Amino acid sequence: MAAVRAAAVALLSVAVLCGAGLRRSQAIGVNWGTQLSHPLPASTVVRLLRDNGFDKVKLFDAEDGILGALRGSGIQVMVGIPNDMLADLAAGGKAAEDWVAKNVSGHVRDGVDIRYVAVGNEPFLETFNGTYLKTTFPAMQNIQAALVKAGLADKVKVTVPLNADVYQSPTGKPSDGDFRADIHGLMLTIVQFLASTGAPFVANVYPFISLYADPNFPLDYAFFQGSSSPVVDGGVTYQNTFDANHDTLVAALRRNGFGNVSVVVGEVGWPTDGDASANLDYARRFNQGFLTHIASGQGTPLRPGPVDAYLFSLIDEDRKSIQPGNFERHWGIFNYDGTPKYALSLAGGNGSTLKPARGVRYLEKRWCVLKPSADLADQKVGDSVSYACGLADCTALGYKTSCGGLDAKGNVSYAFNSYYQTMDQDARACDFKGLATTTSVDPTAGTCRFIVEIDVGGAAAISSARGVAGGVASVLAALVLMSSMLL
Ligand SMILES: *[C@@H]1O[C@H](CO)[C@@H](O)[C@H](O)[C@H]1NC(C)=O
Ligand SMILES: *[C@@H]1O[C@H](CO)[C@@H](O)[C@H](O)[C@H]1NC(C)=O
Ligand SMILES: *[C@@H]1O[C@H](CO)[C@@H](O)[C@H](O)[C@H]1NC(C)=O
Ligand SMILES: *[C@@H]1O[C@H](CO)[C@@H](O)[C@H](O)[C@H]1NC(C)=O
Ligand SMILES: *[C@@H]1O[C@H](CO)[C@@H](O)[C@H](O)[C@H]1NC(C)=O
């Protein structure tokens, strides 16, 4: 088994290197989020990473099971600290020392290749209203001191992944980039810290959000095949928003005397569902364009050379908050079960494409649907959909989404099945006051996929079904039933 895997990895590397005649100038990383009702086993995911040639992974916290599975994998790790821990870690050195002892030192000793600690996640986002402005930097200092004390500071660097809204250009030209005025001083303090420890500036860059926020955003400027609306900046012409955004940061660093701080792209990607601009075609165009762009090794106009980046993200997460939008649960390059969503060559160009997770176990091929005889005008239907979508994921339903073409009954069935699968196909979860029935005929139609969940041993459902924002779910349910109510 191990030999087979080693051979597969070796073959893959050869394929990657020969693929399109492109030199693999820089390793590519990926974000591994874990907000799923039914996560694949950590060992399955680590094998998926290796099979596909990822050599870096970014985690949002320090789960023991995941770090354990990465032991000896050869994959470099950025371990995250959630924002809600920042206040404690800022308050005193002891908390930081405990955190490092428990979540870093032991794992490093066991052979987990931890390279970075990411203190907080986009803590200065404007939507956080300044909640983490006072705690982020002290927490970074305390974690740094704890790493020094543990003798790990040379190997493990402290940084903070920041949303691209911490820098901007008043003119739109990258060369005029600077840090956001309300946090300018704080940013310089942090950048000074990064410069003195040799840690990178980690920035999350999202052309999709630019498009989502502004329907007039020029679509072709998001991709990497030239643009009808390039940005001319002195002698440089920017053909894509990634380069322009990246170089706005580089210019901000230079302007403030830190032109030598390295930049890591902490998150970059495109979602596939939950919004009119989130679909397989755009996601493939963006991600493949990006990967081919960085595989060329040309870099950006202000930083020629390799680009260090982590794709966002590995696998769809059906428990993510949809407060920013329904697309939040659909960023994966893989579906919930580790199947690739579309052909993507990590090496760029025409190299070998994504391989699926191996050895995945599914529940039975059984779905839950609305009984054909049910009456849509029945009040129980609306209540049942609200209930189902409150506890399961209905974000594939909506205007121009993968299931946007369903009829009214299809909508209800989709909601019922989503709940039934989330509840591990428990018979009681396909009743809905007598409105529902199970079927062994796959109701999948066109782009709308009715899933069969993976088998995680029955433990996942009920506990993880909590915590979905009820308000948002009922809005969704209302949408699902909109036209049926009007009948
Ligand atoms: C890390 O260490 C601290 C101890 O300071 C612990 O409370 C925390 O839950 C650990 N695990 C994670 C995932 O952060
Ligand atoms: C930020 O402030 C707005 C407006 O006052 C509020 O609606 C929102 O809930 C706040 N967000 C957080 C994270 O505190
Ligand atoms: C970057 O520049 C700063 C300020 O001049 C200096 O303190 C630091 O040592 C430099 N770091 C590297 C990695 O060259
Ligand atoms: C990929 O293959 C197509 C068709 O064979 C070719 O036109 C294209 O130039 C190739 N792309 C790269 C980057 O090699
Ligand atoms: C099904 O639900 C979607 C949104 O969730 C809605 O746009 C559509 O109108 C619904 N279709 C019918 C026929 O009710």
From TrEMBL:
Annotated source species: Panicum hallii var. hallii
Annotated membrane topology: Lipid-anchor; GPI-anchor
Reactions catalysed according to its record: Hydrolysis of (1->3)-beta-D-glucosidic linkages in (1->3)-beta-D-glucans
A GO biological process held by the record: defense response
Enzyme class, spelled out: hydrolase
Protein name per Swiss-Prot or TrEMBL: glucan endo-1,3-beta-D-glucosidase
SUPFAM superfamilies given in the database record: (Trans)glycosidases
Family: Belongs to the glycosyl hydrolase 17 family.
Main location: membrane
The EC number(s) this enzyme carries: 3.2.1.39
GO cellular component: plasma membrane; side of membrane
